[in-house]
Design goal:
Length: about 270
């Protein structure tokens, strides 16, 4: 199966190998150096305390970055016919990584909303009294990786069944041009990004409402909202939009892969 010619599919995809230096530099600088250092600082510093959702989100983006560099590790970047096993593993990881990251962002936003709720909130009372700390930690940490593994298994099975659909896309990394895989991942990510933006908006409205209520109760309370808080909200909102663009990738590339998938489907 692995010996089937995959060059025909590659010819229909745009060649972006000229961007390989920039592409791998950004991934290595951020996902191989910057984020691991941040995780080490967050986990070892006695002065900085961060919830598991923040650390877990950083780890998911490290996996995202590593998944895009597998051909680079093997010395096959820019090649259009790398070893099938390596190409299949990277295709599976690349399709599983965006949903993993978007679930990580969703859990982080949900955690921020959770922290803003009053102690007497019915959900908090039920959640705190009936769910053990270990289970709570598992609910924060495990979902992104369960989604990642599930999608990886599906892509691997598809690639083994149709080896010709596994291609070294764009001269940068391997992907799979199966009809279901090409569009299901962006749709999955887009749905959760809409939920993330709704939660972001709800959290911001709730914060503003509580600030206004405090102003009414205590007129001496400062009328100037902390710039640091608003800056964090603004940056996180921009980050959410950036995540949507990253996880869904560009419409042009997805349409290119979709065109190849349709062509292969009709040829069969």
């Amino acid at each position: 199966m692995a010996s089937q010619d995959r060059s025909g599919s590659n010819d229909k995809l745009p060649d972006l190998s000229y961007l390989s230096t920039l592409f791998f530099t950004l991934h290595i600088a951020s996902g191989h150096v910057g984020l691991p250092l941040l995780v080490i600082i967050l986990t070892t510093s006695k002065r900085i305390r961060r919830p598991p959702s923040v650390i877990n989100l950083c780890i998911t983006w490290i996996v995202f970055s590593v998944s895009h560099c597998l051909l680079f590790y093997g010395g096959y970047h820019g090649h259009y016919d790398p070893p099938f096993a390596l190409c299949l593993v990277q295709a599976a990881m690349i399709h599983g990584a965006p949903p993993m990251c978007v679930i990580g962002v969703f859990i982080l936003v949900l955690h921020v909303w959770y922290l803003l709720q009053p102690p007497w909130h019915p959900f908090l009372i039920c959640y705190t009294n009936n769910v053990s700390p270990f289970v709570r930690l598992a609910l924060v940490v495990l979902p992104p990786y369960l989604v990642f593994i599930s999608i990886c298994i599906g892509v691997v099975l598809t690639g083994l069944y149709r080896p010709s659909s596994v291609v070294s896309s764009l001269g940068l990394y391997c992907t799979i041009v199966d009809m279901d895989s090409v569009f299901s991942v962006p749709v999955f990510c887009a749905v959760f990004m809409v939920l993330i933006l709704i939660l972001n908006l709800g959290t911001l409205v709730q914060y503003c409402w509580r600030w206004y209520a405090l102003m009414k109760v205590n007129p001496l309370f400062s009328r100037s909202t902390s710039l640091n808080i608003w800056l964090r909200v603004f940056i996180f909102s921009l980050y959410s939009f950036a995540t949507l663009g990253t996880t869904c990738r560009t419409p042009y590339l997805r349409l290119s892969e979709g065109h190849v998938a349709c062509s292969m489907f009709l040829e069969d």
